Amino acid sequence: MRGLSSGHYARCLDDEGRPVPDWAWLNLLARGEDAEIRSIATSGIRRRAPRDSAWRQAVVFLAQEVLSEAARGGRTVAELQRSTLVPLELALIGQASPDQGPARVVGAALTALAEHPTNWSS
User: Fold this and answer.
1) pLDDT, position 35
2) Are 68 and 2 in contact (CB under 8 A)?
3) What is the pLDDT of residues 16-67, one digit of tens each?
4) Are 60 and 41 in contact (CB under 8 A)?
5) Which residues, 6+ apart, have CB-to-CB distance to 24 below 8 Å?
6) Angstrom distance (rounded) from CA 92 to CA 108
7) Distance from the CA of 20 to the CA of which of 5, 13, 77, 121 falls in 20 to 30 A?
8) At 121, is the pLDDT very low, low, confident or very high (cuts 50, 70, 90)?
9) Closest of 26, 98, 19, 95 to residue 61, by C-alpha
10) How many CA atoms lie within 13 A of 29 on its CB side?
11) HSE on the CB side for 87, CA within 13 Å?
12) Which residue in 27, 18, 15, 20 sits closest to 63, CA to CA?
């Protein structure tokens, strides 16, 4: 799956005009580079077409939350990705009904970030 490991799977599907599964929107945050997540948090996701605007807004919001949680817990984005976002992405891939919409994915991500241990040692 092109773009999966780099966090660009949703973009690849979107650029091809194919449907984007819920977990693929989280893929950008779970596997994207720190600088890209920071750019999304401040500038949004730049796209030619307004397709999936609710998802784009959700990803921007979650990018901001990831950066906030990293700063609050004294962790790097990469640490949050490994400990929280990648496991959540994999859980979403494995769900029987994978397409639940942006509100549910945002809720699941916020819960996972809130449960992230901020005081564990590296």
Assistant:
1) 94
2) no
3) 888 888 888 898 899 999 999 999 999 887 664 446 688 889 999 999 999 9
4) yes
5) 9, 10, 13
6) 9
7) 77
8) very low
9) 26
10) 34
11) 11
12) 27
Provide the token pair at 35. Answer: 């600088």
81: which DSSP letter?
Answer: I
Which pLDDT belongs to residue 16?
Answer: 86
How many residues belong to the chain? Answer: 122
Cα torsion through 113, 118, 120, 122, rounded to 10: 90
**9 close to 3: Cβ distance less than 8 angstroms:** yes
**Pairwise CA distance, residues 22 & 56, whole Å:** 12
Whether the CB-CB separation of 23 and 87 falls below 8 Å is answered with no
Given a contact cutoff of 8 angstroms between Cβ atoms, the answer to whether 15 and 94 are in contact is no
User: Which residue type occupies 84?
Assistant: T
Q: What share of the chain is helix, strand, coil (3-state, %, to 5)?
A: 65, 0, 35
